[in-house]
Write a structure and sequence with these properties.
Blueprint (H helix, E strand, L loop, with lengths): L1 E3 L2 H5 L8 H18 L4 E3 L2 H8 L10
Parallel strand pairs: 1-2
Length: 64
Amino acid sequence: MRVYLDNCGYNRPFDEQASAIIRLETDAKLYIQEQIRSGELELCWSFVLDYENAANPFEDHESD
């Protein structure tokens, strides 16, 4: 099965986790991410994600 995540989904784990709904959405995103990594799901990408990310005013920070 193919899945598409928008930027809100990608960023949900970085949001404040005090709210139960935010935490549930974070858990769901991380579960989907693991399913993609294991090959159970296939991730789709869109030029819209590239466009939205290009408009991000914050520097790109890669983890070391």
